[in-house]
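tool_call predict_complex ligand=iron/sulfur cluster
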Amino acid sequence: MSNKKLSKSKVSSKIKTVYSDDIDQLWIEHENIRNQFNDLYEGLAHKNLENPDYTFLDLKIEIAEKIIENCHLCERRCNINRYLSKGECGVKESRIASQLIHTGEERVLVPSHTIFFSGCNFQCVFCQNFDISQNPLTGVQTSPENLAEIIDKNRKHGSRNVNFVGGDPTPNLPFILKTMNLVNENIPVVWNSNFYMSLETMKLLDGFVDLYLTDFKYGNDKCAKRLSKINNYWEVAKRNHKMAEKNGDLIIRHLVLPGHLECCTKPLLEWISQNLKKDTVINIMGQYRPIYLAENYEELGRYVYLAEISEAVKYAKSLGLKNVIH
Ligand code: SF4
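tool_result ok
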């Protein structure tokens, strides 16, 4: 953020690779480089690097564009051709609902140039951004060139990072990769997501994302299915958090839902304490509002009690988690 070393996307745009039109070959090449990326990154992040013809970032774009021919960017795995139709997220072309310099994110991240994409692969009945997430046709279409110019301009004005969110950024991965390939400035990428990315997407994000800002919602599959219409949440969220910790910086957010301390908050905090580093930053959020369809679900039709937030924070600390913010 302070420009002392290159961002991961910038280093990926300087690593030479070879082109192939065969997807299996592209993945082999991608995984070869990915397996050495952490070592390469430390060696290259302080250097003034040349611009090769075809790069690791170009390779990521090529693969992402092939993935949406039978879309499996997220674990819904709709397997439809997104060039022709829409999947569960409703996203065909990327649309931007708004973009702004956010000063309300975690202190370490602000001012954060935050870009909100329309549409989402989740259908949370309490979505705090439902006007954007459940309306993939809202907002405007723009080109990667135009967005890259805006990102450059904001960086020059002092943004500390570019923060891709929604809805969810996942359905927009090819557009985001193409945009960052055109950005001239050196700026860290924040991936601000519900964390339901497919394994393939997680691999593409490795070597691209500097900081994962996760929205860890539920501690079991039943609540995820009932409230977000999502299958197999718990396994996917756990896998992706483990990968994120290994591949970048990590801040976990957890929005405390009314009446969900025992089924969601406590189990996910326990899992974090047993499987991730004890100094992982965890933001326990208390700003839940009973909006959108929340009133149709008995326990969600009220604000969260202060006592519930305090209990969540106390429980996290009792598990030995050292960086709990709220
Ligand atoms: S991003 Fe996910 S929900 Fe959207 S079409 Fe692809 S697999 Fe389906």
